[in-house]
Amino acid sequence: MKHIEYKEIDEFVYHDTMDNGLEVYLIQKAGYNKKFVTYTTKYGSMDNRFEVDGEEYSVPDGIAHFLEHKMFEKEDGDVFDSFAKGGANANAFTSYDRTSYLFSTTDDFYKNLTLLMDMVEKPYFTEETVEREIGIINEEIKMYQDNPGYRLYFDTISQMYSDLPVKIDIAGTEASISEITKDHLYLCHDVFYHPSNMVMIMAGDFDVDETFAFIREHQEKRGAIKPIEVNRLLPEETRDVAKSRHDLYMDVEETKVMLGFKNEKIESASERLTRDIAMMFGLDMIFGEQSEYYYQLLEDGIIDDSFNFAHNEEKDFAHVLMTTQTDDPERFTASILDIIEDIKDQDFFTEEKLSNQKREVLGDYLSSLNSPEYIANQYTKYLLDGYDLYKLPDLIEEITVEDIKKYIFDSLDRDYLVECVLRPESQREAVHG
Q: If DSSP codes are grouped into helix, strand and coil, which group holds residue 359?
């Protein structure tokens, strides 16, 4: 067992790898009543093509999310009910590159931990239950397709990416979901729910030795599990956008626009995180509610209080999204591009602004370390991205004004911009004549 101490922030992490390859991290929070656990597989919606021991497989889109749903259903009932009876709150989510199962509790920790491990490690699928789930998820997909914000987001992503599966809804499509069989589910579980592809993170007040011994004994009872070699097969994606502009019509009252700036992916985990933090600082300086540009856009009626922006940095893709409700989407786009050009001709990014942002972000970060949920979820995210949550303050302090300039001006490049406009259905004829 490895013990890691972060003296500057008074945090303690214990790490061990089970004989079957499962990695376990225990974050000790002395005096806390609540315990929070995430059990995560490095398997997400983008993993629809892969190679196992030299043999290539292609599975229907949406299968990772489908599998997440099915893991809670066992022959003897719904595992959610069992967690509730044990005094625990349980949940799960699927993203582009991972699926996490989690619970929090103040009572019967080992009982709930056993329940979590058994649920994730022991699949149960039948043709009947799969067919029933197809109907449930297809209804979920239809519901999302009727959501204007959701449609605007995915239409924008689809404009940006030509081949990368990020452009496909995490839940899949009605057509792809209807192709899923129990054999697909067992295949993907065998491949991606292998203990060597999973990590467990725990945050709370534990008897460290007892907890690791409990997990080790549970894993040993699974018996020998054959090692496998998995190669994820992702298509190459250039920075060029698939389509620069698109109009979407739905039964809405107001027009909304979303801009997407597509970026190059970065191989280095530390550089990805550097860009992510630098972009967060830079975007907030330009468009945050304290900036002059924000107030001018608001005063001129170009944006309203729905305006928001975000930089999304992942291992296989990166982009910036901006959106607002507006009567004049073309004016919004032109104004954003004008602002980007304007800041190139002045010393807009300053040490004073950066110092203020660093103090605010570090304050929020340190405050968040009081939450076992935040710690377990974020430790999982940074670990799977190749970084350490507790080294984040050092990286934040290292960000410079030059970093911000470098990444902002490269990322907000109009050559890699897409514009998606969601208009009321009544405007279709007026726009197209």
A: helix
Residue 82 contacts residue 76 (beta carbons within 8 Å): no
- Three-class secondary structure of residue 262 per DSSP: strand
What are the φ/ψ torsions at residue 367 (nearest 5 degrees)? Answer: -65, -40
Considering the entire predicted model, what is its pTM? Answer: 0.93
Within 13 A of 270's CA, how many CA atoms are on the CB side?
5
- What is the spatial distance between Cα 238 and Cα 235, in angstroms, rounded to a whole number? 10
Distance CA 300, CA 308 (A): 17
Joined tokens for residue 375: 């710690």
Break the chain down into helix, strand, coil percent, rounded to 5: 45, 20, 30
All residue ranges of the chain with pLDDT < 70 are 429-433
Q: Which two tokens stand for residue 12?
A: 């303690």
DSSP 35: E
Distance from C-alpha of 41 to C-alpha of 72, rounded to nearest angstrom: 15
User: Which residues are 170's β-sheet partners?
Assistant: none
Out of 68, 121, 133, 314, pick the active-site residue: 68
**What is the Cα–Cα distance from 427 to 433, expressed in whole angstroms?**
10
Decide if domain 245-432 falls under CATH 3.30.830.10.
Answer: yes
For the chain, the structural domain boundaries read 2-232, 245-432
Q: Say yes or no: do domains 2-232 and 245-432 share a fold.
A: yes
* Closest residue by Cα to residue 215 from 201, 225, 205, 228: 201
**Amino acid 7: pLDDT:** 87
* CA 260 to each of CA 60, 94, 241, 300: distance values in angstroms, whole numbers, following the listed order: 27, 23, 10, 22
Q: How many Å is the maximal CA-CA distance in the chain? A: 72
Please state which CATH number belongs to domain 2-232.
Answer: 3.30.830.10
54: Cβ contacts below 8 Å, ≥ 6 apart: none
pLDDT, residue 429, reads 67
Q: Is there a catalytic annotation at residue 299?
A: no
Tokens matching residue 16? 């061990």
